[in-house]
Amino acid sequence: MSYKQIFTIKDSYLLCITDGGVNEAKAFIEWGVKLVAKTRHCRRTRVLLDNRTFHLALSALDIITFANFMENQGAAKLGLRIAVLSNPHNPESSRFVETAMVNRSASYRAFRTQQEAHDWLCA
Q: Taking Cα atoms as reference points, which of 84, 76, 86 lies closest to residue 52?
């Protein structure tokens, strides 16, 4: 599987639209590294991830590996606040990513609508 990330700088946050999918921890970690690098480059700590067309075909171990990697990279210490619009076709994986990230002190929350995500992100 492969994916494409499109970044747009908004007034108070960074929008990342991801299309495609990942099916292994290595590819998901690569996705996360690109995201963190872009937040640093753009000097944004608030991120809206539009992952509605991003398919996660990952095992629980892959997700834990990703979350551990992001924790070791200091993603929570960067002060990132991440609102996610998840793919409705694989909500279990999306919920598990949210749980794994929150358990590592990340400010990471999934939403059903863009307005809810935006309101939380900009509060």
A: 86
CA angle 72/77/79 to nearest 5° reads 135
Task: Please give the single-letter amino acid code of residue 36.
Answer: V
Question: Would you put residue 72 in left (φ > 0), alpha (ψ -120 to 50) or beta?
Answer: alpha
C-alpha radius of gyration, the chain, whole number: 13
The pTM score is 0.93
Query: Token match 């990230």: residue?
Result: 101
Helix (H, G, I), strand (E, B) or coil at 4: strand
Whole-angstrom distance, CA of residue 64 vs CA of residue 39: 22
Q: Which two tokens stand for residue 72?
A: 């070791």
Copy the structure tokens of residue 58: 């990952």
What tens digit of pLDDT does each residue of 67-114 get? 999 998 887 788 999 999 999 998 889 899 999 999 999 999 999 999
User: Are the CB atoms for 44 and 9 separated by under 8 Å?
Assistant: yes
